[in-house]
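Internal tracking record. Fields below are filled automatically when a chain is submitted to the structure queue. Please do not edit lines marked as system-generated. If the sequence contains nonstandard residues, flag them in the REMARKS field before resubmitting.
Queue: standard
Priority: normal
Entity type: single polypeptide chain
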Amino acid sequence: MLSNMACSLIEHKRINTTIAKAKALRVYVEPIITKSKDDSTHARRTAFSYLKSKEAVTELFRTVAPKVADRPGGYTRIIRTGYRLGDNAEMCLIELVDFNEIYGAGEAKKTTTRRSRRGGASTAAPKAAADTKATEAEVVEETPEAVVETVEETPAAEVAEETPAVEEATETPAEDAPEAAEDKKED
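SYSTEM-GENERATED OUTPUT FOLLOWS
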């Protein structure tokens, strides 16, 4: 059962199941995903011995392993979805973390800062001041780009002003057209 569920999880990236099965599946599938980071014949054979499906092993090594290469662990997420109507079993959605676009889109990469034990709060104030200076420097750096964009937009505005003159030139033959029509009436 765990082998089939692991194959389904790898192929579909998320499955609905009970909480107990999801917790057992997590313990079963995470070591396999860890082994898939090393794309060797031995790792493929080991993964195949657990999964028993060529398609799942191929999917694991082609798409899943490159996405989780930089992740140290915790490849699955369990989200509780409520209770099943028939037997009131607690249901959940187990999914591969790196394949969920909904959660990944809203999150921005957080920068980690290291704090030393020395200095305490007295060093925190200068760091905050340095952060504000860095922010001001970024604003100053962005300002010349805005000036360049403004300068580039100016010739486009001049071209837009020249456009009515071109339209006036095209109107002149249109005025000649009624005269040509009058000439034809006279003939």
